Amino acid sequence: xxxxxxxxxxxxxxxxxxxxxxxxxxxxxxxxxxxxxxxxxxxxxxxxxxxxxxxxxxxxxxxxxxxxxxxxxxxxxxxxxxxxxxxxxxxxxxxxxxxxxxxxxxxxxxxxxxxxxxxxxxxxxxxxxxxxxxxxxxxxxxxxxxxxxxxxxxxxxxxxxxxxxxxxxxxxxxxxxxxxxxxxxxxxxxxxxxxxxxxxxxxxxxxxxxxxxxxxxxxxxxxxxxxxxxxxxxxxxxxxxxxxxx
Length: 246
Prior knowledge:
4-stranded parallel beta sheet, globular, alpha/beta, single chain
């Protein structure tokens, strides 16, 4: 089995992407190959709904190429699930987003969950996002922003874990959530130490997405073309350009 992981953030190195695949390989079968690509034509980092739209065309293009190249599933490596519906319309193989996969997984191990995100400005966006996961809004009981200013999530793991623990404990005490969802895929690998401290399930969105994609393939499931009808035939094109904010 081969799973293509599309990272919507521009300019990652091969070493950085291989590291993520190496961490994720612990959670899939020995017969499952993971490969990650990032955007190279679209210079964007997904930090807003605006960025999701900007990244969309290249994500769909890469997803379609993955199916053509014989990959069995595509994972969108972002909690915002950028271009998820568009990819499902364009492809027949399973397409899984980190946000939806982790939220659906949370209902397997608890009743109410709390999501930890990295930017307070995106709070209202994520509140609305709950409706796109397939869950009832009350299943995602609360969303908390984690203050990670001046912290490199990958280089300063201990500081990141401490900040996540503090935010998680606030959700557990104030909202009485029973499950924590890590609402950013940069938190890959941190669910284990958090679970040890918090003593409740902590869901790593990257692991949830890859595991779910693998499960769908093993079940021989595919994307319903009744639900996600293939777009009308015809060539689509867009002109390369740029937009500056601020």
